[in-house]
Amino acid sequence: MKKQNTKYLMLTALGLIAFHFLIVVLHSIAHEILAVKASAAQLAFIFPVIIAAPVAAGFLLLKFEKAGAWMVTVSLSGSFLFGLYYHFIAHTIDHVGHVTNLQPAFWSGMFIATAYLLAFSEILGALAGVLILIKQSQFSKDYAARTSF
């Protein structure tokens, strides 16, 4: 039963990774259409941590559960902190309050909606990674207890 719960958590994490990737694509399109350009330093974080690492973590989850769970947790936590700062705290062109006034209105709405959806998917994805690690740790302890002499 415990291994089944871990499998459910893994499927949830994979679904959240796929959802996150879709939202990243839509958010990136909104960035381009609204001419809200990321700096070179931001792009150096965005591509490896926000785009590539969660996808790689999804593949790792399938073969190396513990490494994948760690990568999901770390990458989506980092993504959340980055988005929280740039979309909701720092008063830059990337702040949702600034984007509200940009045209076309559809894409400013898309930018804002996807900023919130990214935060939502990142928190839930990181939580799923943590829960996988906890369940895996409990499963390992139970297995060790049953096999010790």
Notes on the protein architecture:
The radius of gyration is 18 Å and the shape is elongated. The two termini are 24 Å apart. It is built from five helices and no strands. It has 149 residues and is mainly alpha-helical. The chain has one domain.
- Taking pLDDT < 50 over at least 5 consecutive residues as the criterion, the unreliable ranges are none
Overall number of domains: 1
Q: Write down how many β-strands occur, each being a DSSP E stretch of 2 or more residues.
A: 0
**Overall residue-averaged pLDDT value:** 91
Helix content, binned percent: over 70%
Main beta-sheet annotation: none
Total count of helical runs of at least 4 residues:
5
Distance between the termini: 24 Å
The radius of gyration is 18 Å
- Shape descriptor reads elongated
Class computed from helices, strands and strand pairing: mainly alpha
**How would you describe the oligomerization state of the chains in this entry?**
single chain
Q: What percentage of the residues does DSSP assign to strands (E)?
A: under 5%
Q: Tell me the series of helices and strands, N- to C-terminal.
A: HHHHH
